[in-house]
Amino acid sequence: MTVYLLAGGGTAGHVNPLLATADAIRQNEPDAVIIVVGTREGLEARLVPARGYELVTIAKLPFPRRLNRRAFAFLPGMRRSIAELAGLIRSRGVDVVVGFGGYAAAPAYLAARGTHVPIVIHEANARPGLANRLGTLLTRYVAVVFVNTPLRGAVVTGLPLRREIARLADDSAARAGAAREAIELFGLDADRPTVLVTGGSLGANRINEGISQAVQSIIDAGWQVLHIWGDKSDLRDPELAHYRVLRYCDRMDLALAAATLAVARAGSATVAELSVLGIASILVPYPVGNGEQRFNAADLVAAGGAVLVEDAKFTPDYVRGELLALLGNAAGLERMRSAASGVGMPDGAERLVALIRKAISRA
């Protein structure tokens, strides 16, 4: 019986691949013990127990960017977290630590190093976070989603996909059934192709405004729009025919199954899911932060499966012009769909589990 400690969380970009990996382990090893370490503040606090996995929480310790009171509290707090996790590793007989980035990952890597337990790292973004950059100094087992991710010795495994997405990628009949279910659930028109618009759970103001102010032109062109605004949007539903709006969507698998074209941010999960499902897309990278979303999109754009648009340029005029021209080019959309499929890696979870087993066998 193997004991796995999976570390990561904070955002869906960390939690979802962690859970997909846990599911893949459990499917092949029903007697495996899977422990997840995260924080009380992250999404893992809700999603991990809901999926049936044991969650252990540690203090959330943001890495200090400047010398202040928090900086002086950081090192003692980090030592405590490392000691807690080292005790857990010893007491539970953990065989391997697998990290996905986020606040819980760095202390888990250091605890594993101190207890001589093998470490495996998965980095979802093309620009790696600080925890995983640190972790690569401690192990040679590093998995990435994107070829251009600058981590030493990394192998490309792709993204471990949520079960419901992987099912659609593997089974054309299941995907057709999901598309029919989406039409019923979202009140779509079975005779119109669908533009799926989403900026993530919190939404994206520029995408929301660009689409909502020019949506009639898309409808007049014979399409329909399924628009997921996000929790923080203050837009109001104009109640137009063939324009369906949601503040939040908990069945993204169905929304994706219905989509002919997607307009979205370029988070790693979004890019990976659009690729494996072969959905043509317009990607509008989040303009704040370290710019990782632009790099996440690079391979898919280079292959011809997506068009990259800067956030500032995604305006109602862009929608009425370039986007509408793309919708009118059926052959071009088909070429994009085919190109996207060529980039996708539907077996990311299986590839990562194989690397984990390799690390265990060579420990």
* Number of strand segments: 13
Helix content: 40-55%
Number of helices: 15
**Count of folded domains:** 2
For the record, the CATH class of the largest domain is Alpha Beta
Q: Taking all residues together, what is the mean pLDDT? A: 92
Shape: globular
Say what the CATH topology of the largest domain is.
Rossmann fold
The main sheet comes to: 7 strands, parallel
How many angstroms separate the termini?
A: 16 Å
Q: Structural class per helix/strand content?
A: alpha/beta
Strand content: 5-15%
Q: Strand order of the main beta sheet, please? A: 3-2-1-4-5-6-7
| CA gyration radius, whole angstroms | 21 Å
Write the H/E string, N to C: EHEHEHEHEHEEHHEHHEEHEHEHEHHH
Low-confidence stretches: none
CATH architecture of the largest domain: 3-Layer(aba) Sandwich
CATH superfamily of the largest domain: Glycogen Phosphorylase B
Overview of the structural elements:
The mean pLDDT is 92. The strands form two sheets. A seven-stranded parallel sheet has the order 3-2-1-4-5-6-7, with helices on both faces. Helix 1 (12-28) packs across helix 15. The longest helix has 24 residues, at 69-92. The protein has helices at 12-28, 44-50, 69-92, 105-114, 130-135, 163-170, 172-186, 205-212, 215-220, 252-258, 268-277, 292-303, 316-327, 330-343, 348-361, and strands spanning 3-7, 33-38, 54-57, 96-99, 119-123, 142-144, 155-156, 194-198, 224-228, 243-246, 261-264, 280-283, 306-308. It is globular, with a radius of gyration of 21 Å. The protein is 47% helix and 15% strand. It contains 15 helices and 13 strands. The protein folds into two domains: 3-161 and 347-361, Glycogen Phosphorylase B (Rossmann fold, 3-Layer(aba) Sandwich), CATH 3.40.50; 163-343, Glycogen Phosphorylase B (Rossmann fold, 3-Layer(aba) Sandwich).
